[in-house]
């Protein structure tokens, strides 16, 4: 009896011992803060003078946020940014990934080198592009003028700044789509292509009717992860535009940070953070459901 | 007739695709090259129009980052080297702890079935999705109350938190690659589970631990949102420091370019270490499990 019990009990000890530090850390750093955040979002209070106490505010923080045009402006900007950069990344990434399926000399080296931008600090990326996009002496405007166009004040106007931010995010994250797309393309059985060749299918037909549909499950993961990451984008805007000109390039994350750490409207910031969390959670749920569907099929 | 036209069409499209790939490569790698070139320019050359490709190298940016030479005493380079040291310390310690915890948790998740395991794995995955500013609203107060604001210890805690979930998922993937028979045989032969884990399984995932550490280091090293809000003067990391490097004379571009290169170099080194596991690391182990 003793010997029968022993492995099971050490197993249980191992589970508890090995898991509890991580569980406690995450409870303390994720669950507790989110719980508090929801709690704060129903109060009027400021982190600047916490001793003044918290006034019950009910839903007024949410009511205020939903009726405030400034907040809507930030949601609209974030939406435009997400749409622009994710579309560009997906198209570019799928195209380059497809092209990299063909073997040529130095392909693996090129592939590895192309992965680099996504591993860089978003702050470095932001400042690097801010430097290159400077309207007076930036290299981008130099290239623009080489082709005979007028210089553009990229980061000084709301419209171009949105495009600039999308181009920088696309620069950083297209490699991610390339990475996932090539993995998806590699997973398609060679025999299907051979069959298509026998049938005399054109390259375009093969791409749109075989390659894309068959890699859709993995590309969908890429899409959702990019939607989540670009929706909560914060670092890049701090470095690239600082939210300007004016407040025209402030994302929802940026607005949370500004409300909480510049104005110290902690209750209001909490409510906005809860809304942001709900959106992200919604996207995460779609991803998790998709993943379990994928797992069930294989 | 149609055959040759098809051939010409295929030929043309091949060339167009190749040119597009070339253009993308320039878009992708050009900026990094441009940063490296610019980091060696003097202030005057940095703003030259048209941009200079031939110039006399100037190391004042690097001098100010490393706190040596003439630039050491300039007002803009005060504390930059300290922030580099903060980054090195915080990333190293944070990575070590995160990999340690992730290895333990990953092993358990790979080997045991227990109640709530799926919930735990999802909970861990959620740290990948979490918008930093959301929890920061709370951390900002919590860190002040616990005396962790603007300290190395606080930043280490953040570096561990940011990475522990990733480490757990990646390590679970590597442990899944080790056959369960290893432990079964060890136990049949009278060794303890702990012995089997420490002496038999761990050595088999050495490469995985190194790759996990590589990922964690890069993410800790690049971390910005938390560090920028939770530090003010004493414990700024290098990314935070350069984001505030705009002084009275405007943005210190020589310093930023040099700091940018200094921030990229460790990433290059660790990137080489993890290049085979990129898919797994970047998707939190969702894809590319081996």
From TrEMBL, chain A:
Residues 75-287 form the ABC transmembrane type-1 domain. GO terms for cellular component: plasma membrane. PROSITE patterns: ABC_TM1. It is found in: Cell membrane. It is a multi-pass membrane protein. It comes from the Bacteria. InterPro entries: MetI-like (IPR000515), MetI-like_sf (IPR035906), Sugar_ABC_transporter (IPR052730). It holds the Pfam family BPD_transp_1. The keyword Transmembrane helix applies. Its main location: membrane. Keywords: Membrane, Sugar transport, Transmembrane, Transmembrane helix, Transport. One of its GO terms (biological process) is transmembrane transport. The chain crosses the membrane at residues 12-35, 75-97, 109-131, 161-185, 205-225, 269-288. Belongs to the binding-protein-dependent transport system permease family. This is Multiple sugar transport system permease protein. It comes from Prosthecomicrobium pneumaticum.
Automatic annotation (TrEMBL), chain B:
This is Multiple sugar transport system permease protein. Belongs to the binding-protein-dependent transport system permease family. GO terms for cellular component: plasma membrane. It comes from the Bacteria. It holds the Pfam family BPD_transp_1. It is found in: Cell membrane. Residues 84-274 form the ABC transmembrane type-1 domain. GO terms for biological process: transmembrane transport. The chain crosses the membrane at residues 12-37, 84-108, 120-140, 152-175, 196-221, 253-274. It is a multi-pass membrane protein. Keywords: Cell membrane, Membrane, Sugar transport, Transmembrane, Transmembrane helix, Transport.
């Amino acid at each position: 009896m003793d010997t029968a019990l022993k492995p099971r009990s050490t197993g249980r000890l191992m589970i508890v011992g090995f898991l509890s530090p991580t569980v406690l850390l995450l409870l303390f750093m994720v669950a507790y803060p989110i719980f508090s955040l929801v709690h704060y979002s129903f109060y009027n209070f400021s982190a600047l003078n916490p001793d003044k106490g918290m006034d019950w505010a009910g839903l007024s923080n949410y009511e205020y946020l939903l009726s405030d045009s400034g907040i809507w402006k930030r949601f609209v900007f974030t939406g435009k940014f997400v749409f622009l950069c994710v579309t560009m990344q997906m198209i570019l990434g799928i195209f380059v990934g497809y092209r990299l399926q063909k073997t040529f000399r130095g392909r693996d080296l090129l592939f590895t080198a192309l992965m680099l931008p996504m591993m860089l600090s978003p702050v470095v990326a932001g400042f690097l592009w801010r430097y290159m996009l400077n309207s007076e002496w930036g290299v981008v405007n130099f290239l623009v003028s080489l082709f005979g166009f007028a210089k553009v004040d990229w980061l000084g106007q709301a419209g171009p700044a949105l495009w600039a931010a999308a181009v920088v995010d696309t620069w950083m994250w297209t490699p991610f789509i390339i990475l996932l797309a090539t993995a998806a393309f590699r997973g398609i059985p060679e025999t299907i292509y051979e069959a298509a060749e026998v049938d005399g299918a054109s390259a375009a037909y093969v791409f749109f009717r075989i390659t894309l549909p068959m890699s859709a499950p993995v590309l969908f993961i890429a899409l959702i992860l990019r939607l989540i990451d670009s929706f909560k984008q914060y670092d890049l805007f701090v470095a690239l535009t600082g939210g300007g000109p004016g407040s025209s390039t402030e994302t929802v994350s940026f607005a949370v940070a500004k409300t909480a750490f510049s104005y110290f409207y902690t209750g209001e910031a909490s409510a906005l953070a809860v809304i942001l969390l709900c959106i992200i959670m919604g996207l995460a749920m779609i991803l998790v459901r998709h993943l379990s569907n994928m797992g069930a099929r294989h | 007739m149609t055959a040759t036209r098809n051939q010409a069409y295929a030929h043309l499209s091949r060339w167009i695709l190749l040119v597009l790939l070339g253009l993308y490569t320039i878009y992708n790698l050009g900026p990094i090259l441009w940063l490296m070139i610019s980091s060696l320019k003097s202030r005057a050359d940095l703003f030259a129009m048209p941009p200079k490709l031939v110039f006399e190298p100037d190391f004042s940016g690097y001098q100010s980052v490393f706190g040596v030479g003439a630039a050491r005493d300039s007002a803009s380079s005060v504390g930059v080297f300290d922030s580099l040291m903060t980054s090195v310390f915080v990333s190293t310690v944070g990575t070590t702890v995160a990999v340690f915890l992730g290895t333990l948790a990953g092993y358990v998740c790979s080997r045991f079935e227990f109640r709530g395991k799926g919930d735990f794995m999802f909970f861990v995955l959620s740290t990948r999705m979490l918008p930093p500013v959301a929890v920061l609203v709370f951390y900002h107060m919590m860190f002040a109350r616990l005396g962790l604001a603007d300290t190395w210890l606080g930043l280490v805690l953040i570096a561990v938190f940011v990475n522990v979930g990733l480490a757990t998922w990646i390590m679970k993937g590597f442990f899944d690659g080790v056959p369960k028979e290893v432990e079964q045989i060890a136990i049949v032969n009278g060794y303890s589970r702990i012995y089997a884990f420490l002496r038999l399984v761990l050595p088999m995932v050495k490469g995985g631990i190194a790759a996990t550490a590589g990922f964690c280091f890069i993410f800790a090293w690049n971390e910005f949102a938390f560090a920028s809000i939770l530090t003010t003067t004493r414990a700024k990391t290098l990314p935070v420091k350069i984001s505030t490097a705009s002084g009275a004379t405007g943005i210190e571009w020589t310093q930023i370019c040099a700091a940018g290169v200094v921030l990229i170099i460790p990433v290059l080194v660790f990137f080489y270490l993890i290049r085979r596991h990129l898919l797994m690391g970047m998707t939190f182990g969702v894809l590319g499990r081996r």
